[in-house]
Specification:
Blueprint (H helix, E strand, L loop, with lengths): L1 E7 L19 E2 L2 E2 L2 H9 L4 E6 L4 H8 L8 E6 L8 H5 L1 H4 L3 E6 L2 E4 L3 H10 L4 E7 L7 E5 L5 E6 L8 E9 L3 H6 L11 H10 L3 E5 L5 E4 L3 H17 L7 H7 L5 H9 L5 H13 L1
Parallel strand pairs: 1-4, 1-6, 4-5, 8-12
Antiparallel strand pairs: 2-3, 6-11, 7-13, 8-11, 9-10
Helix pairs in contact: 9-10, 9-11, 10-11
Length: 291
């Protein structure tokens, strides 16, 4: 079994003043809260038992937004990260949640989309052996953790914000790990900033020869919505896909229906509760179509 973690912590200072009175994960990416997007990725991977980690002030709001997840066929729980102490701290906070299982961690401001993405996720989950990372080409690799692969496609190096990058493949905010990740995280030394770095976790798996990098194809899209420009670009992308391709992105209720987490009747009821919005009407229509 694989457990999910959405790390939606931090203060979102790069998005001030937007985030001066609200959480970044509650900002809109076109027509849905940002939090819907990472949650949708875990659902597409078939993960249903999910821990949402956020700040003390945001956890109650996230709980009001998503509840216990039962309406989506999920089991959602919540935990507080008192201060931003690094991505890898999620495994210490979520150790009891993970238990003896593998885990999928996704950052709360990441948006993924593309053809066959759900199948790619499920294949990665089923073939997991150690650590699986997802890479995406970027024009400014000095701003990211960068993965380098050899000619055979094997991951050979990981560098955090290198001044002279060996590739342009950024390691995105989606990570799959076996159960050893909890002990690896516990053994990390904090960085000079006092944080537990996810790159150090990934490097330990690489040293053990158990780290894999899946490159997302050109047909896939990834946004790290941590800046005003990327937040706007993600919203414009979702608008284009939904308006001109007729495809809904991160529609949690539709995903739950298509994944078999809920039935058509439950999907219809959820849509009827939002019937005055185009989102709600879409849910009632899709429930009829798939009944």
């Amino acid at each position: 079994m694989m457990k999910g973690i959405v790390l939606a912590g931090g203060n979102g200072t790069r998005l001030f003043p937007l985030t001066s009175v609200t959480s970044k994960q509650l900002l809109a990416v076109y027509n849905k809260p940002m939090a819907y997007y990472p949650l949708s990725v875990l659902m597409l991977a078939g993960v249903r038992d999910i821990l949402i980690i956020s700040t003390p002030s945001t956890v109650p709001v996230m709980r009001n937004l998503l509840g216990d997840g039962s309406q989506l066929g999920l089991n959602l729980s919540y935990a507080v990260q008192q201060e931003p102490r690094g991505i890898a701290e999620a495994f210490l906070i979520g150790a009891d949640h993970i238990g003896d299982d593998s885990s999928a961690l996704i950052l709360g401001d990441n948006v993924f989309h593309g053809p066959g993405f759900a199948e790619l996720l499920r294949e990665a989950r089923e073939s997991l052996d150690g650590c699986t990372l997802f890479g995406y080409p970027v024009p400014d690799p000095d701003r990211y953790g960068i993965g380098e692969v050899d000619r055979a496609g094997r991951l050979v190096s990981i560098e955090e914000k290198p001044p002279r990058p060996r590739s342009n493949t950024a390691i995105t905010g989606l990570y799959l790990y076996d159960n050893e990740v909890v002990e690896i995280a516990r053994g990390l030394a904090p960085s000079p900033r006092g944080e537990l770095e996810i790159t150090d976790v990934n490097l330990e798996y690489l040293r053990r020869g158990r780290a894999k990098l899946i490159g997302l194809s050109r047909g896939h899209t990834w946004f790290d919505c941590g800046t005003h420009d990327s937040l706007l670009a993600a919203g414009q992308y979702v608008r284009f896909v939904e308006k001109y391709r007729g495809e809904r992105v991160a529609c949690l209720e539709e995903i739950a229906l298509r994944m078999g987490f809920i039935d058509a009747e439950a999907c219809y009821r959820l849509g009827a509760g939002m019937r005055h919005s185009t989102y709600g009407r879409h849910l009632t229509e899709i429930a009829y179509a798939l009944d």
